[in-house]
Design a protein that fits this description.
about 325 residues; alpha+beta; N-terminal domain of MutM-like DNA repair proteins; Helicase, Ruva Protein, domain 3; four-stranded antiparallel beta sheet; about 25% helix; about 15% strand; globular; binds zinc ion; class I DNA-(apurinic or apyrimidinic site) endonuclease activity; H2TH_FPG; DNA-binding; Ribosomal_uS13-like_H2TH; FPG_cat
Length: about 325
Amino acid sequence: MPEGPTVRRYCSLALPFVGQLVTKVGGSTKQISLQDLMEQQLQDCQVHGKNLYLAFGCSSCSIKKPEKTDDVNTQDDGKTEEGCSLITESSAASKEQSKPGTSEEMLVRKWLRFHFGLYGSIRANELARARRGNKRGDWKDPTPRLIVYFDGGGFLVFYNCRMSWCSCPFVDPSRDILCPEFDKKKALRALSQPRPVCITLMDQSIFSGVGNIIKNEILYLARVHPLSLGSILPQEDLTALIDHAITFTANWLNDKMKRKALRYHIYLKEQCENGHQVVKETIGPLHGLKRLTWYCPTCQKLPPCCGSLRLSRGDL
Ligand SMILES: [Zn+2]
């Protein structure tokens, strides 16, 4: 599942198209009317948690394109670090410029929200190719859910994502793990509750942007057993978990922008870095999504009073 850092990289792919007009639209989606995008101008892109938001509006009430955007290429040109910083710059610039006519602009500007589920992705100026044949041996390229062509000659392609229109993106930087305003105190209070920390870490109302990979990795780095009840763990452990969440996610984003692969410590591993056998289990809330969880029972000891959870971990 694309997590916060991946979605930020997707945003950097869309950013160079800000200011351009849509000239052609295609794709298999039935979630929006493709016609609604025609001749609209892409005016902004933002990331909140694991969602990408693209603002479209008519060009007569357009915002100015950030000057530096022209310098950013979407592909392997080594300038993607700059693209990263521009995410904020673009958003800041658009907010700044929209102040005087905010109410007027809100009437004509709509945000398209993308959620990437487990396998969603974006490409710029290229289509995804089949990596392997299907059961019948056919090599069939993935079908774009949405493909948007711009007057600059380029295009954006969206695969396997859900999309819907909204009036404005949800903005609460205090719960976005990648925002400097992330509220560590609120996160600590949430983690201190008497429920397994692996469940709290996936709560998007507190740790927006954290997904299954980040969860597994930071629990291992902090040497915390996924089923430990937050109310039993010492505060230092919970604080370490939050610090690892912030650092790991920021480093992952940096690597993403440089197109460097992430090196896992425990996720998908059979042995931990200390050579112990790793356990893989499906863990999740009673009525929620249960996710595969990797942990090392030697490095990540379960506090004794959490032992009874072992019997019912499938139904937490
Ligand atoms: Zn170990």
